[in-house]
Write a structure and sequence with these properties.
Radius of gyration: 23 Å
Structural class: mainly beta
Strand content: 35-45%
Strand order of the largest sheet: 1-4-3-2-29
Helix content: under 10%
Number of strands: 29
Amino acid sequence: MSRMDFESQQTNMETPNSGGWSELPMDILRSVFERMSFVDFHRAKIVCLNWYLCSKQTLPRKTGSPWMILFPEDDGCVLYNPDEARVYRTKRDFSGIRFLANSRNWFLVLDSKSNLYIIDVFSEKRFNLPPLESIKSGHFSLKRVRDKEFNFRLYKNYAGYLTYNNVVDLRGILWVDEKKEEYIVAWFLDSHATFIAFCKNGEHHHRTIPTFIDVDVELQGARDIVLWGRDTLYVYTTLLYIRLVDLSGQEGYKDVSSSDKSPFSLRSPPSDFEIVEALPYRARGRISRNKNIAVTTSGEVLLVESIIYGYGTTKHMIFHLYKKDPNPNPDDILYNLNSLVEVDSLGDDAILLDLGITLHADHSTLGIEPNFIYFTLHDRVDCPREHSYLNICVFNLGTKTLKRFPELSNLKLKDARWFLPY
């Protein structure tokens, strides 16, 4: 057993010598565990086997707000608990590792040798994944050239050609069920990738979903992707349609997109000029707009538009949400015209935009504020990292106001992600 992987900047958290503590009766141990803070709970459960077994029978204290994992420019990572306004620094060496996606405590990471695996940030649990070049496809192949370089070959009605791909462009999404030790991973090489690869627990290769070959033109490309539960992949396509892919089969995938071929976008979105004209004069400046999708707990798709505006380092931000009109105009249905309506409230739900999902915002258990959008990075999928804008905030959809975290301004961050600890 190892010691806790994170320590507070303010408190020494070295694991004590377990000694006779491991022989404490289970009822006493359980009483102790129930009184521990969230961090101490995870620290204590790896002291010895007896404590670990007790932790499995005890519910940890609620964490309050979702946490953030932060990535300073000097490499590595730290954890941040907004309720405590406290940073926990890692004892593990994460230098050279890119964190691509997360599901609760579990993170999909890519190391300096382009090995892909899943780790729990509160323990040393790890799932190794097949090599990137192990993709199983009749259309594509990847051949490793160097640690971070691959040759990509395309087949299918082509003589075959090579293109250079650097894994710095790799994007990913993740879903994990810790109790069942089940997971599914999906990844692609950039926003113009010709395939999305995916892999489930127990598999020894990655299977592929073509994004252009043998795909209807409306459903081609991938501007944004969301993994909803274990089996369903939502793809926001280049032409702004929703592609739905079922991953539940033993082999391959099934395209289950709706026969409704209307784009999922505003029919007449306001221009940048119209947006600027509606802003207070002092807030005007350069406009940056981005569209993502988020999937609700019922499977409904929301369009999330984020708008950043302002001059220099003075940036402002606002969000707009849209959903499919439940009562569309009959002519819209007849001519396959999109019909979206703005969403003014999420009710008792909140959006974790990094994950592309909504969650029931039960503040007493999860610590999530209802009607809020938790946000970190502008253009996470569609824009190269060097052009993305890090903007850690929580947006109140009801009041149209932002909550920021000025205590993080001295950390010189290059990236961040919200996550919900177990």
